[in-house]
């Protein structure tokens, strides 16, 4: 251990001597060339100012980076909104196409409706015409029977006025028949 201590003491002594020597040389240099020390001092001052400016610039860079990150998040949010709206637009386009097809089908049905109603009306009108014809035939038959009855009654009344015995008409033929 002694040897280590001796080596350390020797190294310290050498170091102290070097520091002393450098100090003396620095003093002599300062006395001989004071402008170098002024420039050195100014350079140190400028270095400190530059370090302060560098800190400010680094702070500004951090602020800009934070703004860029915020803008990137906004851009991502807008892109997601755009994708969502595009998906919604595609869905709406499909719905519009389906509704357009349905609308065209309904327009065709509406255009065909008058013909369908004409056909239905013709069918019902045909039934009504048949019923009217049937009723007209029955009416004509009833009028014919009524005229026959009136003729018989008139003939009977003349016979009674002239004193002839009355003829009883056959009741079976006089009963009107209603064909429905």
For the termini, the CA-CA separation is 148 Å
The fraction of residues in strands falls at under 5%
Secondary structure category: mainly alpha
Percent helix range: over 70%
Q: Sketch the major β-sheet.
A: none
Individual helix count: 3
Q: What order do the helices and strands follow? A: HHH
Number of strands: 0
Radius of gyration: 65 Å
Description:
This protein has 180 residues and is mainly alpha-helical. The protein is 91% helix and 0% strand. It contains three helices and no strands. It has helices at residues 2-32, 34-162, 171-174.
How is this fold's topology laid out?
Layout: H1 2-32, H2 34-162, H3 171-174
In short:
This protein has 180 residues and is an all-alpha fold.
Which descriptors apply to this entry?
180 residues, mainly alpha, rod-shaped
